[in-house]
Amino acid sequence: MNADERRYDYCFHPRLSAFIGGLNSLEPYRSRGSRPGAPILEEVTQHEYDPGRPIGVFDSGVGGLTVLKALRQRLPHQDFLYLGDTARVPYGRKPREMVQEFASEVVEFLIGKGVQAVVIACNTASACALPELAERTPAPVWGVIEPGVEAACRMTRSGSVGVIGTKGTIASGAYQKRLEARGLKVWAQACPMFVHLVEEGLADSPEAELMARYYLGHRPQIDTLILGCTHYPVLHEVIQRVTGGSVSLVSSAEVTAEMVKQALMPAAANGAPGRITHYVTGDVLAYKHTAEAIGGVEGELIPLDVTTLAREQPEETPYRIV
Amino acid sequence: MNADERRYDYCFHPRLSAFIGGLNSLEPYRSRGSRPGAPILEEVTQHEYDPGRPIGVFDSGVGGLTVLKALRQRLPHQDFLYLGDTARVPYGRKPREMVQEFASEVVEFLIGKGVQAVVIACNTASACALPELAERTPAPVWGVIEPGVEAACRMTRSGSVGVIGTKGTIASGAYQKRLEARGLKVWAQACPMFVHLVEEGLADSPEAELMARYYLGHRPQIDTLILGCTHYPVLHEVIQRVTGGSVSLVSSAEVTAEMVKQALMPAAANGAPGRITHYVTGDVLAYKHTAEAIGGVEGELIPLDVTTLAREQPEETPYRIV
């Protein structure tokens, strides 16, 4: 398998596809109507699939492009709006409240653009901001954690599973709580250097091998490992080499995309390929460059001034740090 | 030494301070007047020290705060404008032409703000954009490479020195060419994961130890090592532990600040402490958070829309990626 093929291949294990079926039992979080303190959003009552309206996909950076790609493979005629919040990346080491605020701003922006549903393709934001965020959003909101948990529950035979992710995701306990509630034994490990290895183009390097052995070498006996960060599929080969063939890897990108497709159940369409629009809060050329480590971007790229998202940072009024 | 002390201590080796003296022989690059194709800038003819005008300091992110801090220690009454181009960070793995363009935009912005001199506190930008950039800038422009080279030349006894930096800095050969031109034997090593270790708050961690041993373990016999990236001083302890006591570390932050001070030769002032203003192209809160790994920020923080810098990315006109 060459480097390009590796980048585009996120369905790792023959056993995984057999377990993906039936994921439509997973409901998205749904709005329960507005509540005091919630942002004022246009009320959207129809949650059924509307081929004319885009689906919003959101990540702190380029990692969520793995989820967008998996969605595109399943919904090729669907329009997508992808928001990469690269001006504020990475979310993984930021305080929970800050991530909640960022996620709330971004979802509000996407709803304002008329999306029919939102996929939070960011484990940190899913861990920190769901389900509270979904409760005040008048459209279905999916995260990447529930699908990963569901897939792991279906795949494990021993009942002992692992999950790796950013510091923020692991510290939130979001995966661990859900897996333990399903009766599984869980080993969790933060791997803060993995995202950087991917974005540096070092997925296949001695550095990646050293870091993977450091993070995964002391794992207990598990038979399933959730890659709880959208960047990690790019490290699939080194992770599989270190964990050995007896551990099945679960890519949240693939299982989330499958779940969204089945939940929306669109009629088979034969129209034109869907349009992709990327809103980028950081520099657009830098975004395109970094995305090459993930598999590249296609579609329209639109710079988005982060100050139009951030409610707390008026552009006109500098403030003094205390 | 506790963690806070370590962050603020960038003058590593007792021998270094003895060699910093006399660095005023290092001239900044000076404008040779405008030339065809150069941006139209207000002509500034006076290069002597003017206590009423700020000095501009520029880095792709928070790393240059080590240089700002070293400058502040030497010029406590001086005003500084620091520009952290965090919307486009990191520069280290971007193409040379892209870095040249970014640096040019930023210097033009700072000149427009009335700075009397610019310190490019970014090794990648210094390597890629000097001296061409300085030639069309009507104010002194210093980089961090010449001072580091000068200090290493004065420190080495064996004539064999090393330099570590980002991929971009090392690939540019900027340090190697200058050191070899001075008759030294040079070993150069890119350490792309070092910046990430610092920004993840992992300067004192098993990951840092592993990476330092990987990058530095195979070095030849050298007696001096230039830390050719403004983040690396934060890794001083682990680098010194791995290289052993016989290798002297040169911090470009310290030697650059000393050189700027001596070149400007300001009269001893007893006025109020200088004011610091930070312009940040990425998210301001994220900048402040990341800067905590470097030692924190003080002064005023002003968000700066990166599209006002970037000439090639009109905000109104989305474009299609080909």
What brief labels describe this structure?
alpha/beta, Rossmann fold, 2 domains, 4-stranded parallel sheet, 15 helices, disordered N terminus, disordered C terminus
Short description:
By secondary structure, chain A is of the alpha/beta class.
Characterise the protein shown here.
Two copies of one chain form a homodimer. The first copy, chain A, is of the alpha/beta class and 322 residues long. The first copy, chain A, has two domains: 19-144 and 256-309, Rossmann fold (3-Layer(aba) Sandwich), CATH 3.40.50; 146-252, Rossmann fold, CATH 3.40.50.1860. In chain A, 39% of the residues lie in helices and 15% in strands. Chain A is built from 15 helices and eleven strands. Chain A has helices spanning 3-8, 14-20, 65-74, 96-112, 123-129, 132-135, 145-155, 167-172, 174-181, 194-199, 206-216, 236-243, 252-264, 284-291, 306-309; strands at 55-59, 80-84, 117-120, 141-142, 160-165, 185-190, 224-227, 248-251, 276-280, 300-303, 319-320. In chain A, strands 4-3-1-2-9-10 form a six-stranded parallel sheet, sandwiched between helices. In chain A, strands 6-5-7-8 form a four-stranded parallel sheet. In chain A, helix 3 (65-74) links the parallel strand 1 and strand 2. The radius of gyration of chain A is 19 Å and the shape is globular. Residues 1-47 and 312-322 of chain A have low confidence and may be disordered. At the A-B interface, helix 11, helix 14, strand 10 and strand 11 of A face helix 11, helix 14, strand 10 and strand 11 of B.
